[in-house]
Amino acid sequence: MLLNEYETLDRVLHSVGSPRVENVSIWEAGNRVLAKDVVATIALPRFDNSTMDGYAVRAEDAVTGTRLLVCGEQAAGPDLGLSVGRGEAIRIYTGAPIPRKADAVIMQEDVFAEERSILLREGVTRGENIRVRGGDLCEGQNLAFKGDLLTGPKLAAIASQGMSQLPVFARPSVAIFATGSELRSQGEPINAGEIYETNRILLAQLVAGSGAAGEIFAIVPDLEEAHCKSFHQARSYDAIIVAGGVSVGAKDFVKPALQKLGAELELWRVAVKPGKPFMFGRMGSSLVFGLPGNPVSAFVTFLLFARPALWKLGGRSSLELARTHARLEQELVNRDGRPHYFRGVYHQGSFKPVGKQESHALFALSQANALCRLGPDQTLCANSLVELIPI
């Protein structure tokens, strides 16, 4: 009995080991996964400062029609240690530290400025136009968590703490293969019966989008010796992904070649459409994913099984694929005993299948931006609310 996609994913994830940790420069940490919680040691803002250009005053003195003596100037930068006395004001600029005994900033537009004094056109209240120390972030507050993806805003917040190095999980190294004597690389001459190979470039982008470091290997011809040689070269990688050659045909050498090299194959085929001929196992410390040769099948099985595994191997805390909901523009029918992932277009809350729903239909896949799962032998009528996986 074939395992369904949920049982298959559980088996795959159970085999994934612990990620490695390394320290990198904060400048090189973009889109990496944080390996340790970061706790703030510096408040944001670090000191009370002005939100605009104007004058620092005592709110009790800042009454409409009052004239205040300007007794100094504080720009953004080093704190000059100025203090505001009764009936006084200090010229201040955006981001500058608030002088002692000042508790408000009046906008420059709200005063008539003279050489040494200002006449207030409007008064201010205590705290007005002041960013308070720690108003955004306090010392001891969790700033980022283990397993977080380090986006630009996240890194900027961490940079505010002065950290130059960050502990991150190592990017999984992935060897990417495609098999088939009929395949040719782009730029090569092509003969009758041959096709240009597309799975490696497809998988390379998927691997990179999963936070892993992929390396593309040469096309493997339909010879068992060539398969053994190629897979042996990839023994040191964290994962090996091969597209094609995982079915039961006479020219499908992936399984026997891996077994000759001592690989332990845990899964062979899965109840999903497209993507039934899916293989998973281990060769030494390397995870091995055997994906179907048809590009749509390779794409779907990668998303369902390889991507969550690479996420776990790379330290991600959440392994769930993104989901959204939409209404069907037309009826969808799955007459197969396996769940079927339809490719289509999600736009403004609706979903419509696009192109041929066949495992070889690469152009149709290129036009799609979401997958819609139909269960075995399921029919969904138009306007049904469905769950989608954005791609």
Largest sheet: 6 strands, mixed
The total of helices stands at: 7
Number of strands: 27
Low-confidence parts: none
The name of the CATH topology of the largest domain is: Molybdenum Cofactor Biosythetic Enzyme, Chain A
Helix and strand composition category: alpha+beta
Level-1 CATH class name of the largest domain: Alpha Beta
Give a verbal description of the structure.
The protein is α+β, with helices and mostly antiparallel strands and 391 residues long. It has 4 domains: 5-19 and 171-313, MoaB/Mog-like domain (Molybdenum Cofactor Biosythetic Enzyme, Chain A); 25-41 and 139-169, Molybdopterin biosynthesis moea protein, domain 2, CATH 3.90.105.10; 49-131, Molybdopterin biosynthesis moea protein, domain 3 (Molybdopterin biosynthesis moeA protein, domain 3), CATH 2.170.190; 324-390, MoeA, C-terminal, domain IV (Beta-clip). The chain contains 7 helices and 27 strands. It has helices spanning 5-14, 152-159, 199-209, 224-233, 254-260, 295-313, 362-367, and strands at residues 21-25, 38-39, 49-50, 54-57, 67-74, 88-92, 104-107, 111-113, 117-120, 130-131, 142-144, 165-169, 173-178, 183-184, 195-196, 213-216, 239-243, 264-268, 279-283, 286-291, 324-328, 332-333, 340-347, 350-353, 370-374, 379-380, 385-390. The protein has a 6-stranded mixed sheet with strand order 7-4-6-5-9-8, with no helix packed on it. Strands 16-13-17-20-19-18 form a 6-stranded mixed sheet, sandwiched between helices. The longest helix is centred in the C-terminal third of the chain and has 19 residues, at 295-313. It is elongated, with a radius of gyration of 31 Å. The mean pLDDT is 94.
